[in-house]
Design brief:
CATH architecture: 4-Layer Sandwich
Largest sheet: 7 strands, mixed
Number of domains: 1
CATH topology: Metallo-beta-lactamase, Chain A
Low-confidence stretches: none
Helix content: 25-40%
Number of strands: 14
Strand content: 25-35%
Distance between the termini: 6 Å
Number of helices: 9
Radius of gyration: 19 Å
Order of helices and strands: EEEHEHEHHEEEEEHEHHHEHEE
Structural class: alpha/beta
CATH class: Alpha Beta
CATH superfamily: Ribonuclease Z/Hydroxyacylglutathione hydrolase-like
Shape: globular
Bound molecules: zinc ion
Strand order of the largest sheet: 6-5-4-3-2-1-14
């Protein structure tokens, strides 16, 4: 029996790539299905993996960067027309309520048109959400239970993005930690203690530097500069492996993969990591699934 299941929906970053969508993942256990982040393309991936938007019980948002949030509009409409009758539970940092209000406002005419056309076939709930803004420090703190999954939050270091959180989801003595976007930091070390799986923000900084050089040579100085800035607030893959080792993680799943490698580049992306981390390492890809017994 599977105690917890992880499904990666999107394993990419803000720059759109056809093979790695915006950051998003589903964690399932018992009757509960939880979405952590809703980056671009998450709703499409939900249909592809067989867990449609109306099957999601709650959403947890790590931070308010666009690559973790811009699919909320499609998510809210598709769960509504998918037949839900209750507001969507959403948990996230300060600013989440205002962000959700903004997406709902953008959909106001659409919602009105659909009510006018379909009438009572559609539930009155529309795109309504029940938003809780959370706070957490470097020690994981329980912020919600969804079904029999306990969700804990911890603060991570994604400065200047503040607050930014990681989440630890626990059920039946098993646990999955989602790092959120972060550098190696005390919050992540605490939040990942003994986790069966840690999904980690992962940038191979040497490969990124080569990519930036190629972009610069092609004449796109701006994009090369923006990518170079991103080094300062993401884990290098080696930092992710080091934290996983120190925290006693069993299985490290590299996600938020930068640069957006294809499968043949996996050996280069993970080179040297097995000397740092002695557990199992996977480079995540969109729609990958991992079960914990
Ligand atoms: Zn991100
Ligand atoms: Zn971010």
């Amino acid at each position: 029996m599977t105690t917890l299941e992880l499904i990666l929906l999107g394993t990419g970053s803000p720059i759109h790539q056809p093979h790695r969508f915006g950051n998003s993942q589903i964690i399932r256990g018992g009757d509960a299905s939880i979405l952590v982040d809703a980056g671009w393309g998450a709703t499409v991936r939900m249909y592809q993996c067989g867990v449609p938007p109306q099957g999601i019980d709650a959403v947890f948002v790590t931070h308010l960067h666009s690559d973790h949030t811009t699919d909320f509009a499609d998510l809210l409409v598709m769960r509504w027309v998918g037949g839900v009758t209750k507001p969507l539970r959403v948990y996230g940092p300060e600013g989440t309520a205002s962000m959700i209000a903004g997406y709902r406002q953008a959909l106001e005419a659409d919602t009105r048109f659909r009510f006018a056309h379909h009438g009572e076939q559609l539930a009155p709930v529309g795109t309504e959400c029940d938003v809780t803004e959370i706070s957490a420090g470097v020690d994981p703190v329980e912020v919600a239970t969804v079904g029999d999954i306990t969700v804990k939050a911890f603060e991570v270091d994604h400065r200047p993005v503040m607050p930014a959180f990681g989440f630890r989801l626990e059920r039946g003595g098993r646990s999955i930690t989602i790092s959120g976007d972060t550098n190696a930091c005390p919050g992540l070390l605490n939040g990942a203690q003994g986790a069966d799986i840690m999904v980690a923000d992962s940038m191979n900084k040497a490969m990124m530097s080569m990519l930036e050089e190629n972009i610069r040579r092609s004449g796109n100085e701006l994009q090369a500069g923006l990518l170079a800035d991103a080094h300062s607030y993401h884990n290098d893959v080696k930092d992710a492996a080091d934290i996983a080792q120190k925290a006693g993680v069993k299985h490290l799943v590299l996600s938020h993969v930068m640069p957006a490698i294809v499968e043949e580049q996996t050996p280069q992306f993970t080179e040297g990591l097995d000397a740092i981390f002695t557990g199992k390492i996977s480079v995540g890809h969109d729609l990958a699934r991992y079960g914990i017994e």
